[in-house]
Amino acid sequence: MFSRCATFSVYRASKSLFLPATSILKPSSIAVRLINDYSTRSNCQPLIYRDPTKSSFDYTEKAVIGSGFRVSTADDGKKLKLICKKDGEMRYHGVWLRHNCRCPECYAHAAHNTTVRPEHLTGDNKILAAELKDDIVHVSFHNHTALYPVDWLKEHAYSNPDILYRKHKEAEPLVAKSLPVSDYNEVVHTKEGQYKWLRQLNFYGVSLIKNGPAERNTVRKIADRIGYIQESVYGELFHVKTIPDPDNLSYSSNDLIFHMDLLYDESPGGIQMLHCIKNDPCVEGGE
Questions:
Q1: Cα–Cα distance measured from residue 180 to residue 232, given in angstroms and rounded to the nearest whole number
Q2: Is the pLDDT score of 182 beyond 90?
Q3: Which of 107, 156, 254, 264 is the most exposed place for a label (fewest CB within 10 A)?
Q4: For residue 163, which of 175, 176, 174, 154 has the smallest C-alpha distance?
């Protein structure tokens, strides 16, 4: 028997791997998968989770970092280059920089929201000049001078060769034996475990949580760690059990091909969680 819930809205993932509702899982295993996958990410910035074990950085204050940085424009002012002795060269598009300006005029630091309007991004976003002052990068556009702490640019670098290499390296589909695994108690009770699980879910699009209790509503404890459960026509939780002559394939013992659920909804859920509570003793696999 499975407990299922759909929750949240997630818009980016590096690859897709969807578990059918009747996938073989051992009891107390919880499979979490992204429902919506946007695999083409060449024009998207990477989705970054901050490690909760590290201290946060207040962008209203000057970054305290070492020397060894220099900046320049590239591609006739279309891009900014940040060159670091340790991390190499990082590039940023002018329109991306204009949209993500960190100056007080463009970013509400207390609310962590941008105040840049769409009309600010139209027209010419050519970078006229760039200079580094006290670990703050000053970028001059036609009608605005934008500010960026150097370590903020480093944290949000999307041209890093390691990111591009990882994108192509992991392009091949996952197979069952290599599913990323997290421990239930670590996910529920520690920030480090929660962070590890979210990293797996964001990068691979799927994560298997093991060692959870074989009890109903366990899946709710996982969902409540990261957001609210989106109620559907099936309710918040949907219990699936194999029955004779089912009127829905979810209640059959047939395996299901890879698929996405509830796409007919105006706002389908972004993440689906399947909790295996009980399987017949004759079932093999699912380790």
A1: 28
A2: yes
A3: 264
A4: 154
274 contact partners, CB below 8 Å, separation of at least 6: 2, 3, 4, 19, 21, 23, 25, 30, 31, 32, 33, 219
104's tokens: 């007080």
Q: How many CA atoms lie within 13 A of 24 on its CB side?
A: 10
pLDDT digits 0-9 by tens, 57-77: 333 333 334 457 889 999 999
Q: 19: burial class by Cβ within 10 Å (0-12, 13-18, 19+)? A: buried
- Beta carbons of 9 and 270 less than 8 angstroms apart: yes
Query: Comparing C-alpha atoms, which of 215, 269, 252 is closest to residue 27?
Result: 215
| Burial of 108 per CB tally in 10 Å (0-12, 13-18, 19+) | exposed
Each residue's pLDDT tens digit, 186-220: 999 999 999 999 998 888 888 899 999 988 889 89
For residue 181 the two structure tokens come to: 């695994």
Task: Say if residue 283's pLDDT is above 60.
Answer: yes
pLDDT of residue 130: 94
Beta bridge partner(s), residue 107: 114
